[in-house]
Amino acid sequence: MTGERFADCFQIHVLDERSEGDFGGVWTRQTVLDGLAVLDDALAIGTAVNDTVAVGVYVLAHRPDNDSDEFDHVVEASLHTPLGQLLVMGCTDCLDDAARFDAPAGWSRVRASRRNIAAAVRWSESDEEPENHRGGPAPDLAGPVLRAAHRQALDPGTELTHCGASCG
Prior knowledge:
By secondary structure, the protein is mainly beta.
């Protein structure tokens, strides 16, 4: 799946069709720096802009090679998809508007890779920050940051907020 999503609150969500996960308590200073908030059946992947971003999701039969040198920021985490149906959406999108695609049922590994972060921040243009999410079956649950280029450290006084929306 390739396309665009609005990264409201600087995040894109990847989740199981039936996830009821709430990211409200998961975002910390560290997860903001990592660009990844993890629940068992849902991931919130941080973006550099609060705007529309290009998103590519590729379901692989095996773990991809380490291509982290090709990206500015790469993180991995495991995701449980009992139904084998994934949704990709902005955090304020309605479920009906989410992109849906088939994935292996059970635990999968997701790698989120970002490039051109500095250009995206500088110009706040979504096509400057292609998001690249790849995943395949994998039982291990650790979530390492493979490569990171942090734009800025959070101010000690920075408040972290949870983003929410109501859909009618």
